[in-house]
Design a protein that fits this description.
With 306 residues, the chain is mainly beta. Helices cover 0% and strands 56% of the residues. Strands 18, 19, 20, 21 and 22 form a 5-stranded antiparallel sheet that branches. It is globular.
């Protein structure tokens, strides 16, 4: 049974439950990092500007935000609909003090190239973080998605892989596989060392395709459960006017097997985070209808690094 925890959010994404029972979300169309309390009240933690669309709790009472800067949302009746990208926007990685709301820019470029479309983020146990960027200039002259690794001191950021349509990202329980969603597929990279992916024959990391959505859904972002399964927010395909009313949470095993799907009351089910007793509650961002939902989950989620 799906429970609606909060309403009135402006294109929420990336729910991250906190130990006190509240849930962090970014509101893409509002430009904020917000906190939803257990009684459903929404409090703005920081007015970040741009379009933040990924957040991860970090060390020392902080949160780290992927701010794409350039996603465009437009109201359509009671819905908030994604309508494109601002090509001139500059992406940011922002650090937020969760106690005071003070925030700063940690990274805005990598190797002298401006970040474009930072999307989702996950910490490893040593305190570094992986993140995706949807659009980065490729040497062949095209824009292509990419995966990055960075440190919280603001002194180390580097691209570690190219991947078209890079979006959701997560780590397996043993931290040996980096899951990344790209262009409707779930991919797995082998983590060789902290911050390093195993390279293929051409010197670049070569992911293995774990699952192809085959045009049925647009995969967005994910969380990983304690068994190493990727639980993915899935969007319907096609024009917004013709999308199915119910998006899905889709669970893919580490071997690439479709385990289950759970219908959710929104066309754009963008992300999920595990919290509650035993990490057996899935908190889900319902983006077009501006709601945070919760559903009991059959397996516990994977505890995040922070």
């Amino acid at each position: 049974m799906v429970r609606i925890i909060a309403t009135g959010l402006k294109a929420p994404e990336s729910p991250k439950p906190l130990p006190d029972g509240s849930v962090l979300v970014v509101e893409m169309a509002r430009g904020t990092l917000s906190r939803v309390t257990p009684d459903g009240l929404v409090h703005v933690v920081a007015n970040l500007g741009g379009t933040p669309n990924g957040v991860a709790p970090g060390p020392d009472g902080t949160a780290y935000v992927c701010n794409s800067g350039g996603l465009i949302f437009k109201p359509a009746g009671d819905l908030m609909v994604f309508s494109g990208n601002n090509p001139d926007a500059v992406g940011l990685i922002q650090r937020v003090d969760l106690k005071t709301g003070a925030f700063s820019t940690l990274y805005s470029e990598a190797g002298g190239i401006k970040l474009q479309g930072p999307n989702d983020i996950v910490f490893d146990p040593r305190g570094g973080f992986w993140f995706t960027a949807a659009r980065m200039p490729h040497p062949n002259g095209t824009d292509r998605g990419a995966v990055f690794f960075a440190t919280v001191d603001g002194n180390n950021i580097r691209r570690v892989a190219w991947l078209a349509g890079s979006n959701g990202i997560g780590l397996s329980p043993d931290n040996k596989t980096l899951y990344v969603i790209g262009s409707g597929h779930l991919w797995g990279f082998t983590v060789e060392n902290p911050g390093r992916l195993a390279a293929g024959a051409n010197g670049e990391p070569e992911p293995r395709m774990l699952y192809d959505a085959a045009g049925q859904y647009g995969f967005d972002s994910m969380a990983v459960d304690s068994a190493g399964n990727a639980v993915i927010g899935a969007l319907g395909r096609g024009d917004v006017a013709t999308l199915p009313r119910e998006g899905q949470l889709i669970t893919i095993s580490p071997e690439g097997k479709l385990l289950e799907s759970a219908a959710m009351p929104d066309r754009f089910v963008t992300n999920v985070g595990f919290g509650g007793k035993g990490l057996k509650t899935a908190y889900v961002s319902l983006t077009t209808t501006g709601r945070l939902a919760a559903i009991s989950w059959p397996r516990p989620g994977l505890k995040l690094a922070y």
